[in-house]
Every structure is written in C-alpha cells, then in structure tokens.
C-alpha cells in the first residue's frame, strides 16, 4: 500500500510538472505568438508608414520563431507520449508490486500456519515424550514390584511346601478318623433327613396357616365392605323413607285439601238441593243419543246417574272412539246440545221433540248427514218425569 501511495504521489508530481511545463510552454508560445503578432502589427504599421524598409533580422526571427514553435509543439507531443508511457509503466509496476505483495502475504500466512502447526506438533510430541517418560517410570516401578513379589512368592512357596507336608500328615490322620466316623455320619444323615422332612411339614403348615390368615383377612375385608355397603344402603333407604314420608305428608295434605273442597262442594250441593226443594227448583238427568239410535243416561264413576239442578254448571264429556272404528276421527263427529226450557214447560220428553242446536229445525227435518259422520245429541230430562 505504501508503494502504491508513493507511486501515485510520484505520478501526481510528474503530472503537475508536465502540466507546469505545458503551461509554461503554452504561455511562452502564446507570448511569442502575441509578440509575433504585435511585432507583425508594428511591422505592418511600420510597413504602412514605410513599405520600402524591411529588415532581414525580422524575417530571420520570424522563421526562427516558427521553427521554435514547431519544435515546442513536437516536444509537447513527445512529452505527452512519454508521460502516458510513464503512467502506464507505473500503473503496471504498481499492479505487479501489489501482486507480489499479495503473494508474499499469502506465503507469510502459510509460513505462520506451518509454524503454528509445527509448534502444535512440537507441543504434542513433548506431551507424548512426557507421557512416555511417566510410563517408563511406571514400568520401572512395576518391574521393581514384580521382582519383590517374585521373591515373596518364592518364600511363600517354600512355606506352603512345608505346610503341605504338615497338612498331608494331618490328612492321613483325618482320613483314619473319617473312616472311624463314617457310621456316625450315616446316622447323622438319616437324622438330618428326618429333620428335613419335619421342617418341610412345618413349613407346609405355616403356609397353610398363612393362606388361612390371608383368606380370613380377605373375608374380613369383604365383610367390612359389605358392612359399609349395607350402611350406605341403610342410609339411602333412610333417605328414601324420609323423602317418601315427606311426599306422603304432602299428598296427605293435598288429599285433605281436596276432601275439604269436595266436602264443601257436597255441602253446597246439598244446600242447593234443599233450596231447590224449598223453592221448587227442578233437577235433571244428563242424557245423550248417537245418530238418533238410543237414549243413554250418563252416569258418574260410582254408577249413579249424573243429575244437576238449575243454576249448576254442566260438564259434557267428549265421547271416546270405539276400538272397532279407529279410522273415524273427531272431525267426523257432530256434537249437538239441547238445553231445557225454563219456566213451567217441563221440556221435551223424547229426543225427537228436541230442537236443533242453535235454534234450527228438528233433527229429522234437517238434511241427512253423511253415513261416515256420527251425530251425538246431549240433552237433559227432569228427574220427576217418568
């Protein structure tokens, strides 16, 4: 970078010097031209004044001036060409220097990497050497220990040999004693077998007792569970009994209230009947007929005829469809009600004498309904009429 900056400054100074030279040359040439022009002007003026006078020195100077201007122009062209060549050479030199600098930098980086790798390898080899030295020290210590252990084993071998001789003698004695105790061993083995069988029986009894204990424990758990379930059922039954008792009390209160209402109605009805007897108010039976076929006296649920007095409300039940004719709907049933006449007239005695519903003509004079339609007539008959 310093080389590049230096070359650039050199180029700038060279350019400035060439520019100064050019300016100086141009100024001198312009001055010269101006001088020549002025000289020519003066010459022309002198020539105007005196055409006959012409100096040969002026002609020589003019020629020399022209020659010098040509020389200066050629010199300027030469200098420009040289400066361009110099700039090109300097530029090429700068590029070469930069390439060399980059190459040297790359080589230096490679050398640094190689040096660092060599340093790492040296460090690794040093660590390996340290490990090998430690391993050699360890092996030396182990070799010393092995030598000591070999000496100890040799000593123990002789001692064990002596012990073996002593033990072999003792073994002979023990074999003799073993032959003498063979019978005792057989007897003890027989006793051991008996004791083993007894132990097996005892263990079997213990296992049976454990099974019984586990079974009794499970039965106790089941009994406790059943007791808890019975307690829960008893509580549930007690709760249901309380709920039923409360519901029974509520129904009993409702029943008493309904009985009181019925009793009040019966009292009111009896009072009205007494009043009707006293005031000669008539009572009637509620009757019905279907399609002018048969007269039927309507009855209560207890089988008594349904009767009422004047002024009482009358509830007319809707006839139920018979199971033999399920296809007949309520839209095909015509209901008609004929009320008794008030006053001294006791009303009609038969359903043929009843007026039609709504004050129309008699049923037999009315147009005959369709066969699929059922006509139900409701009317009432005085109870004193036979």
Automatic annotation (TrEMBL):
The keyword Signal does not apply. Residues 44-56, 343-353 have a biased composition (Basic and acidic residues). Residues 25-34 have a biased composition (Polar residues). The keyword Coiled coil applies. Residues 1-56, 203-239, 303-373 are annotated as: Disordered. Keywords: Coiled coil. Residues 80-142 form a coiled coil. This is Reticulocyte-binding protein 2 like a.
